[in-house]
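We treat protein structure as text, and this decision shapes the records that our systems exchange. The tokens are whole numbers drawn from a learned vocabulary of local backbone shapes. One such record is reproduced below, unchanged from the form in which we store it:
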Amino acid sequence: LNTGIIYFQTSSSDVPNFPEFVAVGYVDDVQMGHYDSNTRRAVPKKDWIKDAVGEDYVEGLTARGRKHQLRFKAHLENLNQRFNQSGGVHTYQQMHGCDWDDETGEVNGYNQYGYDGEDFLSLNLKEQIWIAAKQQAFITKLNWDNDKAMMSHCKYFYTQECPENLKKIVNAGRSFMMRTDLPSIQLLQRTPSSPVTCHATGFYPRYAVMFWRKDQEEEVLEGVDHEEMLPNHDGSFQMSVDLNISLIRAEDWSRYDCVFQIKGVEEDLTVTLDKSVILSNWRKSDGGERLMMMCGIVLIHLCSQSHQNSQIYQTSDSSSFTLGNYQ
């Protein structure tokens, strides 16, 4: 079974109501901690994570976060000049971490940088060289390739320190991370002519699929739209899949059902397409006016938009190495 730590760090300029520097770290789908330029402190998100790495390590992350905050700001300003830019919204990002196969013991490390949402520089750990994705990154590649101390530190971090921390955290949080939470599933619809949305929320882990099925055997592909899986505030996940009912005769509705499958659970969770169970802002129930679900559908849409916007600012709580200077 593969598991991994991933760190994101982002330095940005001229972004309203957003810290100039943010760092977060994840083990698989679980956020470990957070640092930003407003709080200037590394904060573990789970007590068992702090217990696994120790208080001294957390304090070390705070110190590293403050150093990286200054360094990333300087790098961002340097890149503005290198790309002949001044003012406006710009971002400089790092994504790095390691994966560990607990069966084979194989460890893989990676480190990538981006500027304004595009690839800039990446590490080939096996060959111990940097790969420039932009012409403007080539001078940095040459400098970092020649920095043997930096490359040695990279190798140590990604092959020893990172996987050792990963193993500690996984062992400490095994019961939390290896759990399986099943979702609540509802059918939603905005108007009588709108697609019917099958919405599942509260499940964990994220290794799940959901689809529409006909006659309990055939997956429906035509008229189906899969929405992006989104995280909930409590660490669980939600997902939706829409079915265009205009393609289905009314007498055939009962032949369709929404199917949810999650890793570690053999039995499928299913909900049959039935007008009587659809939650909507236009339908009345037998007991009177049904609680309107329009706000829920809108909230799903807003969450999706927020999640998409957040991709611009992926961030990290890094126990990363000391970065080399841009020259």
